[in-house]
Amino acid sequence: MASLSKVILVGNLGSDPEMRYTPNGKAVTSFRMATNHRYTTSAGETREETNWFRVSVWGKPAEQCNQFLSKGRQVYVEGRLHARNWEGQDGQTRTSLEVTADRVLFLGVRAPASLPEEGELEPEDLPFD
Hints:
Blueprint: E1 7-13, E2 18-21, E3 27-40, E4 46-58, H1 60-68, E5 74-87, E6 93-106
Parallel strand pairs: 4-6
Antiparallel strand pairs: 1-3, 1-5, 2-3, 3-4, 5-6
């Protein structure tokens, strides 16, 4: 049976991207991004929730993300979820879900510029308000 792990996020960078190179010379850029969800409670009160995600981008797209993205910039990220285990300062094992991006589109005030790929989406093509 086939399986699929895919996530699509549209949100804003919470910090500037950080790029590094693996020992074999492959670029990887990491950044945090936030998505917002606005809803109305049964009492009629409007609330907003913010969810934070860690995103990693590899190879040439990593270099482009490092060059063109900055804190506050809106992005579209498409990728897969990856569980990462780590040990906290208290010695407890913790798990966090991270997104390994296959595709990143730069949205917002500047451009929209994007990483080169066939069949690119334009911001108006996204099914979100």
